[in-house]
Amino acid sequence: MPITANDPQRRSWIQVEKDSDFPIQNIPFGVFLTRDDVITIGTRIGNTAIDLGALHQLGYFEGIPLTDDIFLQDSLNDFISDGKKTWRLVRNRIAELFDINNPELRDNEEHKHIVLFTLDEIEMQLPVQIGDYTDFYSSKEHATNVGKMFRDPENALLPNWLHIPVGYHGRSSSIVPSGIPVRRPLGQTLPPGATTPVFGPSARVDFELEMAFITTDANQLGEPIPVAEAEDYIFGMVLFNDWSARDIQKWEYVPLGPFLAKNFASSISPWIVTLDALEPFRVAGPKQDPAPLPYLQYEGKKSFDIHLEVSLTPENGEQVTVSKSNFRYMYWTMAQQLAHHTVNGCNVISGDMMGSGTISGPTPDSYGSMLELSWGGKKPLKMKDGTERSFIEDGDTVTMKGFCRNEHVRIGFGEVSTKLLPAFGGKRK
Amino acid sequence: MPITANDPQRRSWIQVEKDSDFPIQNIPFGVFLTRDDVITIGTRIGNTAIDLGALHQLGYFEGIPLTDDIFLQDSLNDFISDGKKTWRLVRNRIAELFDINNPELRDNEEHKHIVLFTLDEIEMQLPVQIGDYTDFYSSKEHATNVGKMFRDPENALLPNWLHIPVGYHGRSSSIVPSGIPVRRPLGQTLPPGATTPVFGPSARVDFELEMAFITTDANQLGEPIPVAEAEDYIFGMVLFNDWSARDIQKWEYVPLGPFLAKNFASSISPWIVTLDALEPFRVAGPKQDPAPLPYLQYEGKKSFDIHLEVSLTPENGEQVTVSKSNFRYMYWTMAQQLAHHTVNGCNVISGDMMGSGTISGPTPDSYGSMLELSWGGKKPLKMKDGTERSFIEDGDTVTMKGFCRNEHVRIGFGEVSTKLLPAFGGKRK
């Protein structure tokens, strides 16, 4: 079925600013609370949010096999379970309905009043109920930088790294949408030279610039997904800030991996941009040498050209861009990650989220974490108020943005923006 | 509120065999499919399953604040969210209702026909929808054994182990109840002496004898749970077989921990035994030296004397007991694990599951995995048919049992019993 929603010539009767992340070619999916305190599934064109639950009730999705309440839910999980064909039918239909030449809804003021919202009338929620969250470690530059700092500069990349899309399980419950502030974690750290740990607020809170993909029901327990089919089970992507506490991580992570250094919070952008919408921005991934094992070999372009940037805003201060990177730097593709994740029979279901790992580029200004940007604190970054940052300070806001662009269209992710609060010191609620 | 359900003198009008795991003092909670193909929440006395959904509809829980459909669900999550006071009220009421001297239900044949089932009329399901699953690594003996084999025999225990209840995140989706067979995983391994990995079925599939606890909604994101309060948020425990593929683990686990070596499956016993029911079996945990940091220090007895055993049954062969261990060997208590897990503000919710880590005792016959029992394959175990086992073979069934016993009563967990199937080699369904 053609993705007619991607037609680059189409314009909408909803006004879209130049350089908007959300032209009519995007049609992302999210969940929001409306001005009437109703939770609904929606999409967005320009700065207008569209209530898909109401649109469906008004009959605008007639002919598409959808249950009556599919959009009147507090998560996209059931819609995602409906599968790729249905996602495509719905996106195509939305594009058609909001096409500048289609009077159906354009000229129905009553219906428009019901389904359209300005952004300040809604409150974005977590778009999916995340069953399991996995984080990969798929940027060669990031793995090399971390290996140089934490382990052996001469053998920074571990022997398995070029053979395995290394990944580990993370915590789902503490994933929050953009805008929800995050507390500096308390925890154990080992001061330099000490042999006994101390307890207190982490002194090395960091962001990690990542993207994450969201899956549909993919396989039965025990049955691998071939790499060639893997993308069929990917609904879409979000920006992902994998908050990290480097000092806690250093003391706890051997031998079973990061735990409290990561699970205090992760933040995502609230609009899921579908893989269909990203289709025009496919690029080849980096050449893989040595060739991976056959179950990880694929044909065609399975990476995406997504510009990414991170900025830091001190409390009452000015925003400074601290990193510019690109999703295409990833060594392992999402298809390889998903094929690897299931090769042992691990079952993947609707709403599972898989992080890319920190996306660092080849140059120091494209590194995806403060750990790398400040090289472990040795090269602090200058803020406009004259202060310096090696890691994130209380009151700082970290904002990540991402977008694709070609000569015709710009498809973006909006942002994930999160303020860091001081460590917990009060009483429990 | 007293736990009257624990009265050791009470007898039930339901017949209970001597040495049953499920006397009227147990009253565990589970989810099952009935002969009428209805999913319900239930309990068990002796070999009789009791439909709590039907009991509630018949009015037997009048006076206890419960929603009408609290037991007519496919998971215990909502009931667990109701909190400790409600769990206790319900258990006390069930004990009273099935007391041999109470004619209320005993003499109502019509109602008994509705609510009681023999075990072959029901099919046990997963008792909770598991949000996040965490696995700890809290047996000193196990950590020492593994350290000796995988790392340095002279410094088997890593420097952080005596300070941190080391844990890591696992996969929820692949946790299955007792009786569901598990496939041998495919994956990458590095043959001895090789520098390039090969792909194929794991040759070192292992069990890990664990127990897991299930939590209720415990804290808001950002707010730690003090160790003194932690047990209030633990609903109960199950037996847990943390299936592991040692050869896959060895190649993949540095630096981010085990991933595909674990997430192909974990198996649990289907009846959750409440912490209340285990109250009579509290014991002190091992002395902790050095003293842990203050946030991990506690008073009183916070371990439990739970006898554990593992047996192995070859296909068409005879069952052999391969290990006898005890939950009390754990160095870190559940209260410490939960306090540690949340000290950074990580939020814990109803239905989260936390595994103890392999429970190995001090003697070689009390080790909790084949890796340790066969000492990495150097001391294979003899089966009754003359064959040997270093790890688990296709067709083998691994069965774990657990129970507490004092002079008055035996409280057991039933079993988690799982057959290992050959690696996937067919077509996907």
Oligomer: homodimer
Write down the Rg of chain A.
Answer: 22 Å
CATH topology of the largest domain in chain A: Fumarylacetoacetate hydrolase, domain 2
Please state the structural category of chain A. alpha+beta
Helix percentage of chain A? 10-25%
- Domains of chain A (count): 2
Strand content of chain A: 25-35%
Determine the CATH superfamily of the largest domain in chain A: Fumarylacetoacetase-like, C-terminal domain
Overall strand count of chain A? 26
Residue ranges of chain A: pLDDT <50 for 5 or more in a row?
none
Profile the largest sheet of chain A: 8 strands, mixed
Count of discrete alpha- or pi-helical segments spanning 4 or more residues of chain A? 10
Globular, elongated, flat, extended or rod-shaped: what is the shape of chain A?
A: globular
Give the overall pLDDT of chain A as a whole number.
97
Organism (chains A, B): Sinomicrobium pectinilyticum
Keywords (chains A, B): Calcium, Hydrolase, Magnesium, Metal-binding, Phenylalanine catabolism, Tyrosine catabolism
Family (chains A, B): Belongs to the FAH family.
Cofactor (chains A, B): Ca(2+); Mg(2+)
